[in-house]
Amino acid sequence: MENNFPAIYNDCARILVSQQEIAAICDRMAAEITDTYKDSNRRLVMVVILKGSMPFASELMKRLDLPLELEFMKVSSYGSGTTSAGRINIVLDLHRGDLANVDIIVIEDIIDSGRTLSYLVEYLKLGGANSVKTCTMLDKPSRREVEFVPDYVGTVVPNEFVVGFGLDYNEKYRNLPFIGVLARHVYEK
Ligand code: IMP
Ligand code: MG
To answer: What's the CA gap between 51 and 91, in Å, rounded?
Structure first.
């Protein structure tokens, strides 16, 4: 198709969540999260799962009307391609001081099999955190392999491979400003 869009836009079959919808999702989730923690006198630590959650976390955090600390973790579960490798490795860990008076909110881009977040929540609880909640921009419940229910969900998506706004296919498309369905011609060639 001939158009003036940047070339990477044409690798999306269709837009699933527009920029405007992403902003509205972040407004709503930030209000819910602010409401949950506003009367807490514990430290609140936002743990951002690299790399895919970075754009979502930065949109969300500036809307949170709360004192907040920021930390990053990186896990590897996916190899290349569109299916999970099934194993979770922690590649970058939290700096673990005393977590006893800490509430953690984990920020994820998408929940698919559920393996990453169910593993991380257990790991952080074992580390001694007072509480661990999870916040995901996208949820693909039809793909669950382990039972896992996130505390905050931006929007539910169908069983299709999505890219953009942090989500990648072989490390590309993270810089798309919207979330789109990856066109089949990209991964079936
Ligand atoms: P889970 O452990 O299977 O829940 O996988 C979560 C991780 O898989 C996410 O952080 C993503 O990196 C990746 N993932 C799952 N589905 C998609 C998708 O449709 N597009 C891009 N990445 C995905
Ligand atoms: Mg990822």
So the answer is: 11
